Amino acid sequence: MATAVHLDGITKRFPGVIANDDVDLSVERGTVHALLGENGAGKTTLMNVLYGLYRPTEGRVVIDDEERRFESPRDAIDAGVGMIHQHFMLVDPMTVTENITLGNEPTKWGNLAVDRDAAREAVVELSDKYGFDVDPDARVEDISVGEQQRVEILKALYRGAEILILDEPTAVLTPQEVEELFEVFEELTEQGKTIIFISHKLGEAMRAADEITVLRDGRNVGTVEADDTTREDLANLMVGREVLLDIEKPPTETGETILSVSDISVDDDRGVRAVDDVSFDVSAGEVFGIAGVDGNGQSELIEALTGLRKPKRGGITFRGEDVTKRSRQHRIDSGMAYIPEDRHERGLVMDFDLVENAILGSQHNPAFESGGRIDWNATRSHAEDIIEKYDVRPPNPEAISESLSGGNQQKFIVGREFERDPALVVASHPTRGVDVGSIEFIHEQLLELRSRGVAVLLVSSKLDEVQGLSDRLGVMYEGEIIDVVDPSNTTEEELGLLMAGEHPDDDDTDVSAADVDSVATGGESQ
Amino acid sequence: MSVGDRARDALARLVDASAAERILISIASLVLAIAVGTVLILVAGRMTTCAPSSAVYYFNVGFCYDPVLVFDRLFLGALGDPLRGGWSPDGQFAITMRETTLLIFTGLSVAMAFRAGIFNIGTQGQMVVGGLAAALGTLWASPFLSGVTGTLVLVPFGILVGAVFGGLYGAIPGLLKAYAEANEVITTIMLNFIATGVTLYLVSDVFKDPNSPANQTVPLPDYAQFPALLFGARQDFSLYALFFGVVTLFALYYVLEHTSFGYDVRTSGIQPEAAEYGGVDAAKTIVSSFALSGALGGVAGALYVTMVIGKFQSGVPAYGFDGITVSILAGNNPLGVGFAALLFGVLKSGTTAVQFATDVPPQLVGVLRGLIILFVAMPEFFRLIGRRLVKPTDQSKTIATDGGESNE
Lengths: 526, 408
Description:
The structure holds two protein chains of two kinds.
Chain A: E1 3-14, E2 17-28, E3 32-37, H1 43-50, E4 58-63, E5 66-68, H2 73-78, E6 81-84, H3 96-101, E7 107-108, E8 113-114, H4 116-129, H5 145-158, E9 163-166, H6 175-190, E10 194-199, H7 202-208, E11 211-216, E12 219-225, H8 231-239, E13 257-267, E14 273-283, E15 287-291, H9 298-306, E16 313-318, E17 321-322, H10 328-333, E18 336-339, H11 343-347, H12 354-357, E19 369-370, E20 373-374, H13 376-389, H14 406-418, E21 424-428, H15 436-451, E22 455-459, H16 463-469, E23 472-477, E24 480-485, H17 492-499, H18 513-520
Parallel strand pairs in A: 3-10, 3-11, 6-9, 9-10, 15-22, 15-23, 18-21, 21-22
Antiparallel strand pairs in A: 1-2, 1-4, 4-5, 7-8, 11-12, 13-14, 13-16, 16-17, 19-20, 23-24
Chain B: H1 3-15, H2 19-46, E1 56-58, E2 61-63, H3 67-77, H4 92-115, H5 123-141, H6 147-180, H7 184-204, H8 239-258, H9 260-270, H10 272-277, H11 282-309, H12 319-329, H13 334-357, H14 362-394, H15 397-401
Antiparallel strand pairs in B: 1-2
């Protein structure tokens, strides 16, 4: 078999961040290749390099044994690379035929008019060839999401794509549509097309792909044959296990219950149930960890707890008060600190300097505001304190947040949140994208808070982190906390199994067809 | 390096430009606009006919329109000819100042909304509503007072009424956006039509001056109008109003930069997700920003009534729409609005001066004005676009797009 795509040492740097670090990837012609990894692992960046949206900082893109330099997606399309984005790029009021041929319409009368008949014929021919069931005259707004996806695929094929990239193709599909999509994959590869699809769902990668490449922190951590691997292996590869310095965790006395979550259910932005009937308590002086592969409802759960998302059902009690319906501001004021998973979107206002960012969340706090007026002098000294205590570099409160490196941005957020004198710290991936030295520092600070009697809710997909820091560890899978374990008495293998959705008490640990379906569809099947 | 790369680099440089660089860029743009305008005037002057004696000659070629004279009138004429001696505040300069004053308020109205991430096209409607309310309120209150006390009470009262009603009218699209997710561009445009239509009905029927054939209210008594200071009353300009405008510029700057409300507004404007994280109540901020924006538009309407025409009359000039340009020209910075309003005021009043002094058709003067504004506004406009374009592709944002979309 010939190699259709060869990415050789691709490195893509953005200011302060390495999105892809020396990634090699080879895909054989006529195969399905899954690109597996967590959010932020660099999957989409890598595919954007292949599709010509980004130029790699280093490395080579080789298509059909020929090195290519793509200036834009148009070059990639010319080289036979097509990409189907997660959000479809279709014109809703136009017909399937019009959408597929858009920009490349067959013409008549010397390029003066679109030859509609020829266009329709071409589309029918193409969809017959690959056994697609689409009505060429239907309006895109009238057809299902699964059909729209097939229209996108036809669009790429119409433009001569030999290599198809699909970015999280199953995220928007129902279980039946996922199955249909995988049948389409088979049909396409039989006819010699090559497919690369991005996913963070283990089950569907195993189901649909011939080979699976796992990316973590921008690096290729392994390419495996789908038939020779298990879901536990993949889960372990995805979350990884960096060797951390031993975390010294002195025993502490746990106090009263600070946060109590009862039977909470939360929907994601698409209205799909992401968190299903979750309950747990966090006490003062305790670290409660939530482990799990990204995308199993952790983000939605945390947003519901911190007041950024309304839960559909259930209650949240914080320091004895029912805060389910209270505002985000109220929760901040009553002592809930929150390190968000996304520092660029939420944690910092990138255009503000550190002084202005130092009071994000406490702009109405009497310590910095009186009579509606912000005391910028007090704010500045607060920012300077954070910078000094948490070793933020450069130590310049006037630095625009955007100019800081990721690790320093994170240290500043951590400092700001810890200095709130909180009763509860919700830390969501607090060390993601942070250098080793800062990781250690943030861990120490978390344990320091714990010993001072602060309750800590830690969400991380790094197994060693949650295992090392937590006093109790809940494992989240498909929107549910499927077990709460004592991390010191649990092996990594056991955790890996739990994270892959396989409870050790279950008799059936095979990957049955029904199991694959439920994996592929996330929370939708519930 | 491809064209795209170079364009991107240029955009990035523009985004990173310092304040001094931006002022330099603006001045260079102005000079460039004048150069292009000169060519246009010369060409237009060649294509028309005039008596040889009235033509102007450059390099032995006759032109019917003289660019030097045109730009002299457009700028120096608007400023009341400060270089000729015998300068007096009356005349064209007062008109320039009057336009500037009104544009300060409509410009601030738009800028205020912009800073909160809202595109308020409805300043015009808020101005109309504020103007009618100010006229009716003042007319209602004027019989109770007279003389100097009347002026001292009624003028601020009129402004207050204009601000309140403009603010209420501005709150409508705010509420619609905050609680019904209605796009503010659409709603404000529609509300402009509603404001114009309803006020036209009111002043042609319910509140019509029975002694006038025009659709207008009864004129305000003299003591209820803005008192003139230094300038003649004939020019419909009061230095007090300009002073009030300048104070408002600084006040709005202070509110945005030094209050927690301003902090909430700015945070919502540039990074709504971070604002949400920081506990900012998005709905409340949208409504209050819109109300404040509308109130500033309402003040412009009140000033138009109490300072300029002394009554409410249907057909309020498009100061509200000019405010959008003024705000963009100023980069939505309240202090910049002062300068942008002055430039705009000069151009508006200079147009009249050009028409007095030359045969240049008003359409051509309109083109020149448009050129100048286009040239001066473009760098700022590209900066605004560039902030969205350059950053997401070259910065942090990419990290978030990886799979992060599935969480949206």
